[in-house]
Design goal:
The chain is built from 8 helices and 11 strands. By secondary structure, the protein is α/β, with parallel strands linked by helices. The protein has a domain of 177 residues: Vaccinia Virus protein VP39 (Rossmann fold). The chain is globular.
Length: 254
């Protein structure tokens, strides 16, 4: 079984976008999957622009977005050194080192390459759980990725807003139960907010929601019809398959 020589953590070789992107990631702990593909698909980036991936992990969102949008430049920021190292391996392994880079660092004190730069778009999959309100996973890396710890959600959102140019977009994926907190944070500097539910299957609640806002805008919130991920038989819906397997973009326009 392949391992990371620095930490002796078991590593798996996985694939996204029907294996158009290969991904080395820890067998245990936080693991990137469909959320990363969906989040990348929602970013309205264009060729020639620069995008920030805040909390980049092993690079899944950045790699999917780089594959979909040629000539896009992506900068990732990841707190955990072991994940940032794997992210670098994944970038090289997918032949995208000329357009994608992940730096190790904290959003509270980001490296100058990120902390002194603004980007056309920022994308983020922040920790899901409020500190102290959920049982922490036994795996330390997963606990850091899923729990807010010393950096609450509002700090993540404020960081994303600061690092995005006026008129640019901030795109977040989060648990639907925390939608009110996401909206409150984004309204501190953005508007034209689109709420895009990810329905598990017909007749089921949306457990995940993508939220996108335009920095400096003042327009009202819009509730989008969203995307149903599975059909009544439990298979990928046709619309979800186009995004998750074929790399199609999600249209969040109202």
């Amino acid at each position: 079984m392949p391992t990371n020589p620095d930490s002796a953590v078991a590593i798996t070789q996985d694939g996204l976008l029907d294996r158009r992107i290969t991904l080395r990631q820890p067998r245990h702990g936080y693991r990137a999957g469909d959320d990363a593909v969906l989040l990348a698909a929602a970013v309205p980036a264009k060729a020639g622009q620069a995008v920030l991936d805040a909390g980049a992990g092993v690079g899944a969102v950045s790699l999917c977005l780089a594959w979909r949008c040629p000539d896009l430049t992506l900068h990732g920021l990841e707190l955990q050194p072991e994940l940032a190292r794997l992210g670098g391996d994944n970038i090289a392994g997918n032949g995208l080192a000329d357009r994608v880079a992940i730096l190790q660092g904290d959003i509270r004190q980001p490296p100058a390459e990120i902390g002194q730069t603004v980007f056309a778009h920022t994308v983020c999959n922040p920790p899901f759980h409020v500190a102290g309100r959920a049982s922490a996973p036994p795996d330390r890396s997963k606990a850091i990725a899923h729990g807010e710890g010393e950096t609450p959600l509002q700090d993540w959102l404020a960081f994303c807003l600061r690092r995005t140019v006026s008129g640019g977009s901030v795109t977040i994926i989060h648990r639907s139960e925390r939608l009110s907190a996401v909206l409150a944070g984004l309204r501190q500097g953005a508007g034209d907010i689109v709420v895009f539910p990810l329905w598990a299957r017909p007749g089921r609640p949306a457990k995940r929601t993508i939220v996108q806002a335009r920095v400096g805008a003042k327009g009202p919130d819009v509730m989008h019809p969203g995307l149903c991920l599975l059909d009544a038989d439990g298979n990928d819906s046709e619309a979800a398959r186009k995004v998750l397997r074929d790399g199609a973009a999600l249209d969040l326009s109202s």
